[in-house]
Amino acid sequence: MLMNIKEDISSSAKNSSLNSRKEEASLYAAKSYDQLLRKLEEEAREHIRIEQQLKLYIDSTEEQIEESEIIIGQLKTTIKNKSEEINILKEKLKNSEDKYKELKQKIEELEKNGSLVGEALEHSHTQLTASVEKKPLKIIEVTKSKRTVNGNKKVRNKLSLE
Length: 162
What we know:
2 strands, 1 helix, rod-shaped, mainly alpha
């Protein structure tokens, strides 16, 4: 019996040693599992935070894109209007150039006609001068008379060409 008790105590000690090792291993596994779980939770929180930041960034970028598209539309409209203004101004310039050419041509014609008129006047003047040199002016009669007509004095001068 003593031996049985010794064996029981020995087996009990072995069992308790085994149980204690199992408990230690179980505690170690629980701590490792707890640490792993906390680490995974932290990583999940980090991923959620990054995901929220990306959503904010995407929203901000989409707003910027929409604003840019509005500005692009306004710029296209402005460009179209300015192009139309340029075309109108080009047409006005072309019309002005055409008028300028017409007026320049008229001026040239008038200058040409003016020189012809000038030549004709010069020719007439030359002929008159020659005619006057051939037939000098003679004063035939210069009379001054004082006559009263209705109370007014009248002076008469006569010149003639022969």
